[in-house]
């Protein structure tokens, strides 16, 4: 689970920094930033309660944080990146069509 948490944090932070450079819509950049901070807090909460879970008496906070770190937040991170890619493809295709029709008019 540590690898998943580290990869998710790295990917979200990278997306947060690179989305403005690539011209991704601000809504997706803000989503990446919010998910980065939520993941960071969830990893800290999971790390603090991890010892209790190993001994068998896992608290509700530990279970929720572990599930969020392992499954929920990585899935949301993949969704945000997929939406950014889909938006970029849509923009590229609409720009290509616009250029092609304007060249035909000449």
Structure description:
This protein is 92% helix and 0% strand. The chain is mainly alpha-helical and 106 residues long. It has one domain (2-105). Helix 1 packs antiparallel against helix 2 (26-55) and helix 2 (26-55) runs antiparallel to helix 3 (60-105). It is elongated and about 75 Å long. The model has no long low-confidence stretch (mean pLDDT 89).
Which structural traits does this protein have?
106 residues, 92% helix, elongated
Secondary structure layout plus pairing:
Blueprint: H1 2-22, H2 26-55, H3 60-105
SSE series: HHH
Low-confidence regions:
none
In round numbers, the mean pLDDT is 89
Helical segment tally?
A: 3
Based on CA atoms alone, the radius of gyration comes out at: 19 Å
The beta-strand count equals 0
Q: Which secondary-structure class do the elements indicate?
A: mainly alpha
Number of self-contained structural domains: 1
Largest sheet: none
Q: Helicity level, as a percent range?
A: over 70%
Which geometry do the CA atoms define?
elongated
Share of β-strand residues = under 5%
Quick structural summary:
By secondary structure, the protein is an all-alpha fold. It is built from three helices and no strands.
